[in-house]
Design goal:
This protein is an all-alpha fold. It has one domain (about 1-264). It has eleven helices and no strands. It is globular, with a radius of gyration of 18 Å. About 40% of the residues are buried.
Length: about 260
């Protein structure tokens, strides 16, 4: 039980650190079991750590969320059009991954990934992220997003079905390709994670993944609080430094990770 606790704590810290960085949290959660044969806690543990990161991003962006809620109230007289359009773009950008989740949920939950597939996915999408970053005009702001460009970002995010692709990484790639500036790209990717993670949690619950045993409670709580704590400070740090550090460090890390995994 003690060993399970420390493994759960370690995995929750990985989830909190990687969920919002363009490095693929799902792949990092699988690596300990694939490389070292560590215990795989399964979908139930995934729920807890994703719920933790969801709580962190909601808390961090609570003011922005309040603005979106106010703008979308049907009885609002002086509607904030900017927040209303942002909310609409977030909904449109969420649609592709919802469709993928509904039709390919068995595929995503099958734990099909192996070291080679994670390695190659990391390498391919790292290169794509780098090309998007280097070629992007980064001249557009969130206010200039259209429903079409939001849908493009959402289609890229849907590619995160492949472990190693990175949900945030794909959303950032799509946003950069349509010319969104790096700061707003990161903000939109973080806000987009809210309906995306929430939808994933709802789908998991509807499929019966909430059936728990009392012995799982410590692992679940560890996953939730550990990932929430680390995720909050990850978001804060990333938004603070993203314009200074760019995407290159994450690309280099993913290429190195992919190369190392291919050699194992």
């Amino acid at each position: 039980m003690i060993a399970d606790f420390f493994l759960a704590l370690f995995l929750s810290l990985i989830q909190g650190l990687t969920e919002f960085l363009p490095v693929s949290s799902s792949a990092h959660l699988l690596l300990p079991s694939l490389i070292f044969g560590a215990k795989d806690f399964g979908i139930v543990f995934d729920i807890s750590v994703h719920a933790g990161t969801l709580a962190a991003v909601i808390y961090y962006f609570k003011k922005e969320i309040q603005g979106l809620v106010q703008a979308w109230k049907p009885w609002t007289d002086n509607r904030d059009q900017q927040n209303y359009l942002l909310g609409l773009n977030l909904l449109v950008a969420t649609l592709p991954i919802v469709i993928v989740g509904l039709f390919f949920s068995d595929f995503t939950e099958s734990r099909f990934a192996n070291l080679n597939s994670i390695a190659w996915t990391n390498l391919i999408f790292a290169v794509l992220l780098y090309l998007a970053f280097r070629s992007s005009t980064q001249t557009k702001s969130l206010a200039e997003l259209t429903l079409t460009t939001a849908l493009i970002i959402g289609c890229f995010q849907a590619l995160a079905i492949f472990p190693g692709a990175s949900r945030s990484g794909m959303a950032i790639t799509g946003a950069l390709l349509i010319g969104l500036n790096l700061k707003d790209t990161s903000k939109f990717a973080f806000l987009l994670s809210i309906p995306t993670i929430l939808g994933a949690l709802v789908l998991m619950f509807l499929k019966g993944a909430y059936s728990l045993e009392l012995s799982d409670l410590l692992i679940i709580l560890t996953g939730f609080f550990g990932s929430a704590f680390v995720a909050f400070f990850t978001i804060k740090s990333f938004l603070k430094f993203v314009e200074k550090i760019g995407m290159t460090p994450f690309v280099v890390y993913r290429v190195a990770l992919g190369a190392i995994l291919l050699l194992l």
